[in-house]
Amino acid sequence: GENVEQHPSTLSVQEGDSAVIKCTYSDSASNYFPWYKQELGKRPQLIIDIRSNVGEKKDQRIAVTLNKTAKHFSLHITETQPEDSAVYFCAASRGSGGSNYKLTFGKGTLLTVNP
Amino acid sequence: ETGVTQTPRHLVMGMTNKKSLKCEQHLGHNAMYWYKQSAKKPLELMFVYNFKEQTENNSVPSRFSPECPNSSHLFLHLHTLQPEDSALYLCASSQDPDSGNTIYFGEGSWLTVV
């Protein structure tokens, strides 16, 4: 089955700096890669996703890049703010439509943005 | 956002108890899921229901028993649990499981088995 490795497990940055979280996956058939943000005591929420037919996607201060050949994808957060502090999870799935129910999650990255 | 609501939010139970977790979604979705979230482990998919039919059982022990009476409600019945079952149990829903639609999570039920 799919295996998703996520690094680093913890990341501390100064407000205004950029943060990068990387994930690798093992199943070359995976074609859907969402990122979830989970604030302390709250539910995971989708913040951005990418499908295998594109290499990069941006949404304001966040972006995701995908390298299918190397089987890795990354989350980039620019101009970090204290409210970006949370646990971020990457995930991968395969299927004709990008089957959500076969999502395999990484272990998460605890991002701390220091004011 | 209250699209997916879970009760109770916190539950402490003994190993011989029987309890249930409840999930309700108000999003008109057709698929519902149970996930387990333990410390320092990835989110683990437990069960998937699509149009009330169970389509996935991810090798979950029989002491966890799901029930989906309709597309809006999902239960997780718990009996004779072990301390290692203590975790955050997250319910989620999506429009359907195969189209790549966004999964929406509930706030979770914190379960402690003593």
Characterise the protein shown here.
The complex is a heterodimer of chains A (115) and B (114). Chain A is mainly β. In chain A, 0% of the residues lie in helices and 54% in strands. Chain A has strands at 4-7, 10-14, 19-25, 32-38, 44-51, 56-59, 62-67, 72-77, 86-92, 104-105, 109-114. In chain A, strands 2, 4, 5, 9, 10 and 11 form a six-stranded mixed beta sheet that branches. In chain A, strands 1-3-8-7-6 form a five-stranded antiparallel beta sheet, with no helix packed on it. In chain A, strand 4 and strand 5 (44-51) form a beta hairpin. The radius of gyration of chain A is 13 Å and the shape is globular. The model of chain A has no long low-confidence stretch (mean pLDDT 91). Chain B is built from no helices and eleven strands. Chain B is globular. The model of chain B has no long low-confidence stretch (mean pLDDT 90). Chain B is mainly β. The N and C termini of chain B lie far apart (32 Å). In chain B, a hairpin with a 2-residue loop joins strand 7 and strand 8 (73-79). In chain B, strands 2, 4, 5, 6, 9, 10 and 11 form a seven-stranded mixed beta sheet that branches. In chain B, strands 1-3-8-7 form a four-stranded antiparallel beta sheet, with no helix packed on it. The chains are: A mainly beta (115), B mainly beta (114). Chain A binds chain B through residues 4, 32, 34, 42-46, 49, 51, 89, 91, 95-108, and chain B through 4, 31, 33, 40-43, 45, 48, 50, 55-56, 90, 94, 97-103, 105-108.
Keywords:
heterodimer; A: 115 residues; mainly beta; 6-stranded mixed beta sheet; 5-stranded antiparallel beta sheet; 0% helix; B: 114 residues; 7-stranded mixed beta sheet; 4-stranded antiparallel beta sheet; 11 strands; 56% strand; globular
Summarize the structure in short.
The complex is a heterodimer of chains A (115) and B (114). Chain A is mainly beta and 115 residues long.
Determine the number of helices of chain A (DSSP H or I, runs of at least 4 residues): 0
Mean pLDDT of chain A: 91
Number of strands of chain B: 11
Largest sheet of chain A, in brief, is:
6 strands, mixed
- Number of beta strands of chain A: 11
The biggest beta sheet of chain B is recorded as: 7 strands, mixed
Q: Tell me the series of helices and strands of chain B, N- to C-terminal.
A: EEEEEEEEEEE
Gross geometry of chain B: globular
The oligomeric state of the chains shown is heterodimer
Strand content of chain A: over 45%
Compute the gyration radius of chain B: what is it?
Answer: 13 Å
Instruction: Indicate the low-confidence ranges of chain B by residue numbers.
Output: none
The end-to-end span of chain A amounts to 41 Å
Radius of gyration of chain A equals 13 Å
Class by SSE composition of chain A = mainly beta
Task: Give me the secondary-structure category of chain B.
Answer: mainly beta
Mean pLDDT across all amino acids of chain B: 90
Beta-strand residue fraction of chain B: over 45%
What is the helix fraction of residues of chain B, given as a range? under 10%
- The arrangement of helices and strands of chain A along the chain is EEEEEEEEEEE
